[in-house]
Design brief:
alpha+beta; CV3147-like fold; CV3147-like; 2 domains; 9-stranded mixed β-sheet; 7-stranded antiparallel β-sheet; 12 helices; globular; S-Me-THD-like_C; S-Me-THD_N
């Protein structure tokens, strides 16, 4: 599951190694965690979406305490008059996909086979519940110092602004529950089957003679480049990791260069002044030999990597989905083009006659 979540994290969502340690420890202490489908829950069952919020580089060192999910669950029970019935990952990507196993074990609750993204995104409102039009009534946050903050934002955009401010005050890392909802309201508002999907991705490379080929086939992904990391620019600011990474092609890709733009996750892949892939489609950097995903905070000069890109959940290609997490949401000014169209549009050049980089100017 952790291998799959790392791939779906598109570079963000936190380092899965921390989540694995927490999950294994919690399962040993509290027992196994049932995985349940949405249609097996009563309509009034309260679903608690949980995720870490903040800069992944900080989260790697500032580990969630065991008390954070308990404090949030207690506050939610106080606010709603009943305890939650299931835990859901707000984003299946990265540590935020794995750690809910630990949180569910500690709370004695099942884990819902669903999430709010089908990947990882950097901002609070970038979830399927927001796209579906559900109100962001309550956000509950807790940090390692023991603080508990309840926010009642007027909408999803304000939930990002206020939650980010609290996160920065907590050292740029905290635990958060948002879009707390019943099973009845969750139908059509969450992306179902994503835990199972992460497991399938993780298992795809087990025992494979060519792990990279096996992973690419499982994802239905386009291979953008195979090469060596030659430059990484990364900074932590405003509760995010921002920057870029440059990969110079090797072997059959020698003479080519790909640049990735980052905001916690890999947002855009550029080559030769043209876009190769862009959010909300998924762009992931993997180790060329093992096919293990490399998070943005772990990118280092000299790494031998392959960049893969594949299609996002159809929800993100709707008008509201693109408004929420498409190129314009991150300051880019061109129209979104699906990765499969970029992949097949022009076999001349490097196989992609896509959007000129000049149209991307003005990023915030």
């Amino acid at each position: 599951m952790a291998r799959g979540c790392a791939v779906l994290g598109t570079g963000g969502g936190g380092d899965v190694r921390t989540g694995v340690l927490a999950a294994k420890g919690a399962i040993r202490a509290y027992g196994p965690v049932p995985l349940v489908r949405l249609d097996t829950l009563p309509g009034d069952a309260l679903i608690l979406p949980l995720s870490g919020i903040g800069a992944p580089t900080v989260g790697h060192e500032m580990i969630h305490s065991e008390e954070e999910p308990k404090r949030i669950a207690e506050e939610v029970e106080r606010l709603f008059g009943r305890p939650p019935s299931a835990i859901m990952s707000a984003e299946i990507g990265g540590e935020n996909g794995v750690s809910p196993v630990a949180w569910a074990a500690r709370l004695g609750l099942p884990l819902l086979d669903a999430d709010g993204m089908g990947r990882a995104f950097p901002e609070v409102q970038m979830v399927s519940m927001y796209v579906a039009g559900l109100p962001a009534d309550v956000v509950v946050m807790s940090d390692v110092a023991g603080n508990v903050v309840t926010i009642r934002p007027v909408d999803g955009l304000w939930s990002e602004r206020l939650a980010r401010a609290v996160c920065v005050a907590s050292g740029s890392h905290a635990l958060m529950a948002d879009y707390i909802l019943t099973a009845e309201r969750a139908h059509g508002a969450v992306i179902e089957g994503t835990v199972t999907r992460a497991l399938s991705i993780g298992r795809a490379t087990e025992g494979a003679a060519d792990p990279l080929r096996a992973l690419t086939a499982e994802l239905g992904a386009a291979r953008l480049i195979t090469g060596k990391l030659t430059d990484v620019e990364r900074r932590t600011t405003g509760g995010f990791v921002r920057g870029s990474a440059t990969i110079e092609g090797t072997g059959a890709d020698r003479g080519r260069t790909l640049r990735l733009e980052l905001q916690n996750e890999n947002l855009v892949a550029l080559e030769g002044g043209r876009v190769r892939a862009v959010v909300p489609d998924l762009i992931t950097v993997v180790d060329t030999e093992t096919a293990g995903a490399v998070q943005t905070e772990a990118l280092r000069y000299g790494q031998r990597v392959t960049v893969l890109a594949w299609a996002c959940d159809p929800l993100w290609r709707t008008a509201k989905g693109l408004e929420t997490a498409g190129p314009s949401a991150f300051g880019y000014t061109h129209e979104y083009v699906p990765v499969e169209e970029l992949e097949t549009a022009g076999a001349s050049a490097f196989g992609h006659d896509s959007v000129p980089v000049e149209e991307l100017e003005g990023r915030g």
